[in-house]
Structures are given as structure tokens and as C-alpha cells.
Amino acid sequence: MATVPEAQEALNRFKMEAASEVGVNLKQGYNGDLTSKQAGSVGGQMVNIMCPVRTVEFMRSNWQFPKQKERITYLFNIAV
Fold it and tell me: Whole-model pTM?
């Protein structure tokens, strides 16, 4: 996959920032000495930043018992 050089640089900076946030020391170039847990935590942090989870809560009438209210919670991701 070919990328624009400026975009590749931005992705590398983003990866380095995500790694520092989760406490993983990345070096420029090959990082094959990372454990799966470390590599996964960096990728997971990148996804959390790019696609944050949002929560919406509201109250509505219970359809079985109309005089009772029930709390409804929706969790969803926003893709950027």
C-alpha cells in the first residue's frame, strides 16, 4: 500500500504518541522485539483515539408497565 510521504510521517508521529500514552517505548524503524501485548496496546490506543465510544442515556416509559420509567443506554463508536 503506497501512502503520501507526509501522511506516513503523520501516522508515525501518531503511533509514537499512542505508544508513549500506554507506556511502550518504540524506536524508529523495526520494533519486532515488542510483545504481542505491547503491540496490541499501541494499536488499541490508536483505535480508541480515532473511534471514540459515545454513550447516550435517556428515560422512557416501560412498554409493559406504562407508568414506570426505564433507563435506556446506547453505546456506539464514531468513525472518523
Answer: 0.62
